[in-house]
């Protein structure tokens, strides 16, 4: 399958590498020129569960994507939420009548942007629990196991979704179809809405955060705000299940030593974060539905203060 990874950061690098290893025709598109230069010169270098792997995958800057002759069967979107519109506009020439878009972004509401570029029956919304990190331009650290769920936005898109799932599973990405992807997205948003912002503000990995005395009260308060908003959108979250999933992030033997993507963006690379599409989205939805969201609102403000202090761009 001809696949574009639109957003070749940590997670995009993981999916691109694994799909490339499964003999798909993969290209990477991103806006970080230094990262792209390293990949094109030296290959994508990955610490893959302790083994060094070098993959020669073509990598292009999104601002020059209109020069690329590549008719994509599948586009997997891994941009930051605030970059999605620009990316889709940049790669529009590679979107054909049969191209499917799989959106695996953190946060909520991205289908509204995607429908500006493709019809609903070409959009797959997904949720992934894989992890990944970048140790420098062109260098990825990929560890642990994961999975993803996806659902077609259209009732007629199930067959096409199954073909995408077959390709993903051929790359050992552990994909399955879901009839309730919004519930999965909200559960993932709860993980991101706790681990990302808190680890970033407190300069901590997930295991050390989980070892602090006040963390249970803080996490419970944030998750309750997510659940209250989700209920207004027809999603009933199983709070015990969500909290158990969050607590699994603290395990030092699995992913507990990981620094979440927001930490990597802001603390490591001084980049703007997706907080407005995670906790900020819950705060905005809370205002719409008359739901109090003091923890999400405060955490969003704290992250924006940190962005200004670090001069994030």
Q: How would you explain this protein's 3D organization?
A:
With 313 residues, the chain is an alpha/beta fold. The protein folds into two domains: 2-179, Rossmann fold (3-Layer(aba) Sandwich); 182-309, N-(1-d-carboxylethyl)-l-norvaline Dehydrogenase, domain 2 (Orthogonal Bundle), CATH 1.10.1040.10. The protein has helices at 10-21, 33-42, 84-90, 111-114, 158-170, 181-202, 206-210, 215-232, 239-248, 261-268, 279-289, 294-309; strands at residues 2-6, 25-30, 44-48, 51-55, 59-61, 72-77, 95-103, 123-128, 133-136, 139-142, 148-152, 175-177. The strands form two sheets. Strands 5-2-1-6-7-8-11-12 form an eight-stranded mixed sheet. Strands 4-3-10-9 form a four-stranded mixed sheet. Helix 6 runs parallel beside helix 10 (261-268) and helix 6 (181-202) packs across helix 12. The longest helix is centred in the middle third of the chain and has 22 residues, at 181-202. The radius of gyration is 19 Å and the shape is globular. The chain starts with a strand and ends with a helix.
């Amino acid at each position: 399958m001809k696949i574009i990874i639109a957003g070749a950061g940590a997670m995009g690098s993981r999916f691109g590498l694994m799909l490339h290893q499964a003999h798909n025709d993969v290209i990477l598109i991103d806006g970080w020129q230094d990262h792209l230069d390293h990949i094109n010169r030296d290959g994508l270098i990955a610490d893959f569960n302790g083994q060094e792997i070098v993959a020669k995958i073509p990598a292009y800057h999104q601002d020059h994507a209109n020069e690329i002759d590549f008719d994509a069967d599948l586009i997997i979107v891994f941009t930051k939420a605030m970059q999605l519109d620009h990316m889709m506009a940049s790669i529009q020439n590679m979107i054909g009548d049969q191209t499917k878009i799989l959106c695996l972004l953190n946060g909520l509401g991205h289908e509204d942007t995607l429908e500006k570029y493709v019809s609903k029956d070409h959009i797959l919304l997904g949720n992934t629990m894989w992890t990944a990190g970048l140790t420098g331009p062109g260098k990825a650290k990929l560890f642990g196991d994961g999975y993803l769920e996806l659902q077609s936005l259209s009732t007629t898109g199930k067959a096409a979704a199954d073909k995408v799932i077959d390709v993903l599973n051929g790359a050992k990405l552990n994909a399955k179809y879901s009839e309730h992807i919004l519930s999965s997205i909200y559960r993932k948003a709860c993980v991101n809405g706790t681990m990302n912002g808190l680890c970033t503000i407190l300069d901590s990995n997930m295991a050390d955060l989980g070892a602090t005395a006040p963390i249970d009260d803080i996490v419970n308060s944030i998750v309750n705000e997510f659940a209250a908003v989700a209920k207004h959108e027809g999603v009933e979250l199983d709070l015990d299940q969500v909290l158990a999933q969050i607590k699994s992030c603290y395990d030092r033997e699995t992913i507990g030593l990981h620094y979440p993507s927001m930490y990597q963006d802001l603390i490591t690379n001084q980049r703007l974060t997706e907080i407005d599409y995670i906790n900020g989205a819950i705060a905005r939805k809370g205002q719409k539905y008359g739901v109090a969201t003091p923890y999400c609102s405060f955490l969003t403000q704290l992250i924006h203060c940190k962005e200004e202090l670090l001069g994030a761009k």
